[in-house]
Every structure is written in C-alpha cells, then in structure tokens.
Amino acid sequence: MLTDSRIQEHNEKLADDHAFRWGYMQEWLHRKGIDAEHILQQLQAYQVAIPSWALGTGGTRFGRYPGGGEPRSLEEKIEDVGLLHALNRASGSISLHIPWDIPQDVQAIQNLLDEHHLTIDSVNSNTFQDQKDANHSYKFGSLCHTQSEVRQQAIDHNMEVVEYGKQLGCHTLTVWLADGSNFPGQHHFRRAYQRTADSLKAIYNAMPEDWTMLVEYKPYEPHFYSMIIPDWGTSLRLAEYCGPNAQVLVDLGHHLPNTNIEQIVARLLHFGRLGGFHFNGSMYGDDDLTTGSIKPFQLFLIFCELVQAAQDSAVQNPAVAYMIDASHNTKDPLEDLLQSVQTIMTAYAKALLVNTKGLFAAQEANDVVRAEEMLKDPFLADVRPLVAEAIRRNGGALNPLGLYRQLDIRRQLIDKRGKLAVATGL
Ligand code: PSV
Ligand code: MN
Ligand code: MN
C-alpha cells in the first residue's frame, strides 16, 4: 500500500517546488542569523504519540457516522499508526487504552510494533465505564468512591494496566478520572478528595520505580456540578502527594473557555511537574477537534513556553510526553491525525524561531509592543518548508496528507476491512 519507493516518487514530483520554497526559507533564516540545521535537528527529533482511540470515527452522544475501513483490532490500530508514521516520521508511538486495547499475544504485538518502528508511549486506565463481569459499578465514582471495595477494584484495574504496559516496554500510566458529582450536596468535597489522593498513592506506590504517572484534569463532563480533579492545581497537589514520578497532564480541551493555558504550562514547568500533553482543538470545552484548528496562536504560545524552558538550565522538568487526544464525527480520522501532527510540528517550528534573547530583553525593558512583535514575527512566518524538509530528511513524504489522498488509502482500507468496519473502543 505505502512503500518507501512510493514516498520517493511523491517527493521527486514535489522536489522542484520544495527546493524553491526551502531555498527561500534558508536564505530568510540566514539573514536572521538563525542556524537552519540546528532547527531542523530539533524538528527531526520531535515525536507525538497517536491515541488508539482516535483511529475510528468519534461521534457524539447523538450519533456516529463511521466512514468505513476502521481498525477492528489492536493489530489493525498499530498498522494505522504505522501508516501515519511512515508518511510523516513523527508519529512513532501509540497510546493504548485498557481494556479496549488488551494485547492477546504480547510477542506478536511487539513484533508488529517493531515492524512499524513504533513504541507504546503510555497506557491509559479506564474507570469511566463499567466493565463486563465487574463486581462493582463506577456509577458513583472509582478512586473517590465512598466504598473501599469499589476503590480497590479501580486500583487493581490500574495495576493491571501497568502490567500490560510493562509487557510492551511502556513506562507511563495516564490516569483520567470521570469521578465527580452532579448535584450540590452529593459529595463531601474534602473526603472525596482525600480518598482519591490515597487511591492514587496506592497505585503510584505499586508502580515500578522507572514508571511515571500522569494525572489528567478536566473541569466538567461527565459530571456537571463538580469533578474530582477539575483543574491543574488539584492535579499538581495530587502529583506532589504521590511522589516525584507523578506529573500533571495538560489536555488542551480540558479548560473553561479562554483559559490561559500557556501560563499553566509555564507554571507547571517552573514547578518541574509538567508530564505530558493531550493535544486537540477546542472552541468551548472538551471538543476534541483537530489540534490548532481553532486557536493556532495559543498552540504556538504553548510551544514558546516549552522551548524557552528547554533552553533554561534553571528549569528541572522531566521529559514531556506529547500525545494527541482527538476524535470526532466528520473527518477521516487518519486525515485528521495527519493534519494534527503537521500543525503541532508547525507550531513547534515557529517557537524554535523566536529570538528568546531579544524577547527577554524587551520584557526586562517593559517594551510591551516589541515583546509582542518578537512573537508575532515567527508566528506569521510560513514555516511549512521547514517542517517538510525535516520530514523529508527523516524519510517521510513532503506532503503526507497529499500522498495519503493520492494513494486513496481510505478506499484501500475499506476494501480490506469492509465498509462497515468500526473501530473497537469508544
Ligand atoms: C477524557 O475526556 C479524555 O480526555 C481522557 O484523556 C481519556 O482518557 C480520553 O479522553 C479518552 O476517553
Ligand atoms: Mn485527554
Ligand atoms: Mn477529553
């Protein structure tokens, strides 16, 4: 379906146009005194994980419109991520959700991962749905539940998720809790928090020492009066309570409208507790739209904080896990993911071009306009040739989405898996 020679052929067709645009970009960078090779090295090293649950059409609670050819098993999900990675060389890992993605034959899964040059970046627990044959229901919470048997079931599930992760060489557990309340009076806020903290700590203590726990927050949904971990402050406090290998995960959609997410990112970096991202696009809340589709400037500002922190030896933050968490109803999911990765790399590339020294000087001088212009200049630049060159040098396609369409990959997947093939999971 997609071979290296197909990619070469595609790149050769676009070579002339790319050479012209890349040449102009190189000259522009040179005039600015920016080392293009250094920027390229950083872009070439960048990877963002693909969530197994984004490979099928998401849908809403009102309906779902599958486009066909969706992956029906973990094996087919790995094949889809392998395809994305072959196209852009920047999607070299996959986030799994247990129990949706339980590996039946670990060795066979590992072989398939190797074949596609993929790793498992994180395993995600699921205590937001009751599982078949479960002894206890999560209707009134999991790690926060009033009854210890329910909490223990949720703790055990998380440990089982870690076990699967261990078998596949993963070192990160992501915990997102749907726990919360719908009506005033339903929860004793302080006690519910403490039960959650102690449950998380029990999981943390049982994890291998070289594992990281990422604690995700979300202000509302599925509960609409209170969530047990509604904000980054609660996640941070819980991470601190658990220990040094617990970190905060920032899902871009998990904020109330107009929240200054870049400032949250800076704070967490400052405290050395930024563990990971779930990238997506948001207009109102947890919309799970394509990354950067609504607020590209905010995405760029977030990357500016990450780049500045990486250049600052005073920042003691562990490596950040970059992941996408998006899924919706109207696009081909693979096209959506290709767009997302491209947009993320574009935002990163722009952030790498910021003249940080000049920016800091303007900040010190309280020159507000100059400081703002120092950001706007790279933000408004067309860095697509830079991103394309990084992908090309890694062996990928100059236009990953273009090649995906040109090869009619969705039709090939439908032919292979069927029109009615619907992804397992959500
Ligand atoms: C919840 O909204 C969330 O963002 C969490 O990351 C989940 O694990 C994921 O979506 C999939 O349901
Ligand atoms: Mn998420
Ligand atoms: Mn979400």
From TrEMBL:
Name this protein carries in UniProt: L-rhamnose catabolism isomerase
Occurrences of domain Xylose isomerase-like TIM barrel (ranges): 103-287
UniProt entry tagged with the keyword Transmembrane helix: no
Keywords associated with the record: Isomerase, Manganese, Metal-binding
One GO MF term attached to the UniProt entry: isomerase activity
Gene3D superfamilies in UniProt: Divalent-metal-dependent TIM barrel enzymes
Record gene name: rhaI
Highest taxon above the source species: Bacteria
